[in-house]
Design brief:
By secondary structure, this protein is of the alpha+beta class. 36% of the residues lie in helices and 21% in strands.
């Protein structure tokens, strides 16, 4: 009877223990702080020009960056209008140093809430920032980073739980 109850308890607790989810967006946004700053600058530019400013210039954006957080990280950008969204493609400089970029707490929270995607791409650009059109206030839809383009390894989506009770149950048996 004791072993039956202990066995049922072990199955119940063992079945409830599952790996915890780790948000990989957090890691991706930490590695690409300069991309987040670039997306914020582009978003401000689109809002101020009311979406009519199709001649987006990287040098002009760098001048608008009063805190000088992205000056030597990007080689070029290109604005493309697509059905449903505006895309801005970017290419990193070979000497990109994203470790010098610091974000305020409010910016960190905003960066972690964005949708970050890493995917394979054969394009010449290292990534793409997608914005809604002006009717939706140029909200950042998602940021796509090319796999292997100066992006550090991200954390796995799942990690084993730190509070696993299975070893404790085995000690009881």
């Amino acid at each position: 009877m004791k072993t039956g109850i202990l066995f049922m308890l072990m199955i119940c607790i063992g079945g409830c223990v599952s790996p915890s989810k780790v948000n990989s967006y957090h890691t991706i946004s930490n590695v690409n702080k300069d991309v987040f700053i670039l997306s914020s600058l582009i978003q401000d530019y689109l809002r101020k020009t009311k979406g009519r400013g199709r001649d987006l210039d990287l040098n002009e954006l760098i001048e608008r960056d009063t805190s000088r957080r992205i000056p030597n990280n990007f080689e070029k950008i290109e604005l493309i209008s697509r059905g449903g969204h505006i895309a801005v493609k970017f290419k990193f400089l070979g000497s990109r140093n994203q470790r010098t970029v610091e974000l305020a707490d409010q910016e960190k929270a905003k960066a972690e809430k964005l949708k970050w995607i890493i995917k394979d791409s054969k394009e010449q650009y290292d990534g793409e920032i997608q914005f809604e059109y002006g009717e939706r206030f140029h909200i950042i839809r998602k940021i796509i980073i090319k796999k292997g383009s100066n992006v550090a390894n991200t954390a796995p989506l799942r990690q084993p739980s730190r509070h696993s009770t299975i070893p404790q149950l085995k000690a009881l048996v």
